[in-house]
Fold this protein.
Amino acid sequence: MARPSRPPGFDMTYRPAETVFGPPFVVRIPSFIYLTCALAAVVVVMMAEHSAPGSFLYINILERSARGVISARTVAALLVIGAVAAIVQSGMRGVRIRGDGVEYRDMLTIGIPRLRRVRWAQIDCIVLNLPQAIAIDLWDGSRTYLPVVSDRARLSATLEQVAAARAIPVRGGAGLDEIPDKARFEDDGDE
């Protein structure tokens, strides 16, 4: 017996549009402070290069760096490169809702990234009622916590919509069938 043919692109499961939730600004502040210090070091090196030969900056930065292993320019350049890398690294944190599951990136320790993908079929329950985090209970009994994002309410709403479409249980959340405020529907002329 032949299987009935399906039209091209027909999929029986809900696949949400890809959405990215980045880290909050508070998480990125240390990398911006690092960039500020690196740029300050560049300014000090430039001031030393343009200062008089007997001045404090000239003696302590240019003359000492000429006798050292690495020059002051090289140190300043390495600081700027490290600061830019820290900004890029801090921006890579976050959660991505994909068509096939949830992907999240976080940093374990300094410089060691952590990338994890969880498919929708692996999710047993989405926990939205925790005070600080959003958790995902997996089918193997483990719980994984998503990193903190800048727009937690929108991430919760997106996960709740996907869970409703894919029949994944949700604990907490705003609920999709919330009854709107009754005052919005009252007519002023019916008093």
The first helix runs from residue 25 to 49.
